[in-house]
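Late entry, evening session. Most of the bench is empty. Finally got around to the prediction I had been postponing all week. Sequence below, unchanged from the version circulated by S.P.
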Amino acid sequence: KLNLALWKNDRYLIQKITDQYSAILPIRDCVEALAKTGELKKAMGFAFRKMDQNRDDYLTFKQFKDMLTENEDSSEVHIGYFNRQSLTSVEQKVGIKQKLQEKGFGISFSASLTEPLSVDDTVITRAPDQKEIFMGINKKNERGTWEIGLGYLSGLKDNPSGYLKINSRPQSRTNIGLYFAKNKASSDTLYLELGGMKDITQLTLSYQINTRLLLHIRPEYDVFYAQDTTYLGEGMGAYLEAQYKLRLGYPDYTFKMFCQQMSYKSSHNTGILKEITPFTNVDILPENFSSFGSGFSFGHDNRDNLVRPWRPFLNLDFLYNTQN
């Protein structure tokens, strides 16, 4: 009865069954049922007690870790060094997520600062600091999540920005995501990184064929602007990826193959970007390109989990890009 209620997403029947029969229900089904009815603390407490009784139950342990990682408060600090054409810079990011209540609402804050370290003045005449700050609110329910955020982007000019993320899981193996953004920072080219921004419309489709094989496709449409809102052009394309897990559980080994195609249409305007380049005629948008390659990773299943031993992770990608 519980499996049928979970399949039909009948929350009333799920709650009725868990209230009456939680002591005799299969552990992982009961944990999933409690989480679906919004009783997250009860689900995590039930899973923890069962793990204490049977410390060799790896699947319940993984279910508990997944719930903890997905639903608990978190903070992140990131520092990165970048060396690209004519510019080296350091990026600092801070992110905080705070859950407001058990029913699934939460708030988030993120801030990033990119500071140039060295500039080739034959290509760039000025490289301002780039700042991006966002405050967001999110909601999780049994069918997926949504998040909306507002903030601002500061570089050559200050601009308000925002985004909307929607993720839905209509079936256990299928995930659908929508992402809309206005005035988001762009790193598609050097000049866009220093003084551009873009509007993003993105669809993500993922299908888990089995426990080891995952297919992922992401079509995207972008509109590019200078930070004084001058229209620069647009781009569209798609990314396709297939992942195969050679090993489940840490150290998880994953092999992937991917390809991408992007096309751009330029307006040949520069707007305020003319202040940072010594050239009168310059291509602000990227060239059309195709790329394909493969990659290998391990340790990513535990990358965001707090565990006692050191658990390194690695990702290596090899690709060919027609621009180069």
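Two things to note before I forget:
The chain has a mean pLDDT of 84.
The radius of gyration is 23 Å.
Will write this up properly tomorrow.
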